[in-house]
Amino acid sequence: xxxxxxxxxxxxxSSKKAVKYSLAFDGMLPGxxxxxxxxxxxxxxxxxxxxxxxxxKKEPGHQNIYVLDRGLQSTRTMKAFSENQVTFICRAKENxxxxxxQSLIVxxxxxxxxxxxxxxxxxxxxxxxxxxxxxxxxxHYREELVESTFRLVIVKSKAQEGKEYWLLTNxxxxxxxxxxxxxxxxxxxxxxxxxxxxxxxTSHLVSLNKNGLQVMLYMTLITSMLVLIYKKxxxxxxxxxxxxxxxxxxxxAIALIVVQCGGEPGLFFKT
Length: 271
Prior knowledge:
The protein is α+β, with helices and mostly antiparallel strands. The chain has helices at 44-58, 75-83, 176-184, 187-198, 210-234, 238-260, and strands at 9-10, 17-18, 20-25, 30-36, 65-68, 87-92, 98-103, 116-133, 139-157, 164-169.
């Protein structure tokens, strides 16, 4: 992004300002968008919880499951989600330190889940870092166990040369296979992001302030919703839907102009 932006995040080693935006996507349509310009939001552990909680407030009594990527690793945030009755599934780092409380795998259970193999399913407690300042004022972190319990599901992919996925959730009722499938569906938002950037030119920002960026983003999302509805109704791909939708809107606009002018479009531009 150009350095003309009035406020933004400056990445280490760069003088250019950038903005960050996060989206909620339900597999069909975007549900919420938020633009961040404060440097503290370069960390996903700060940005993602705000997006999730903003969406929860709009839907009291909801039964959503929020599926998040590896950007969320904070045990304190996961604990806060549980306290606010927010159900989540996120991917943890493969070397995440934990204490096993109870295994949920029963004797004779089939570990084959189709596209993956179940390696572990259990109730765990997670460690978190507690900031401690020494006599010199230097800060270091001491590991402590959080009292809240979570569920750790570890699966090994058959297609990706045995790659392991460590999935953390606060849902203790869903089968492990459904938890793995829910995380696999998270790829839908990556496809949607690519559609926004490549087909709707979201990467080309035309405003220089946060409010303008947010307005532009929401206008793009409104357009994307119309195209996505058209895509689903006509069972087409993203590119084809965008092209045909644009053509039909253009033809409709021309038809309305012709009707408005009584068959003489030249009169439309006369006062």
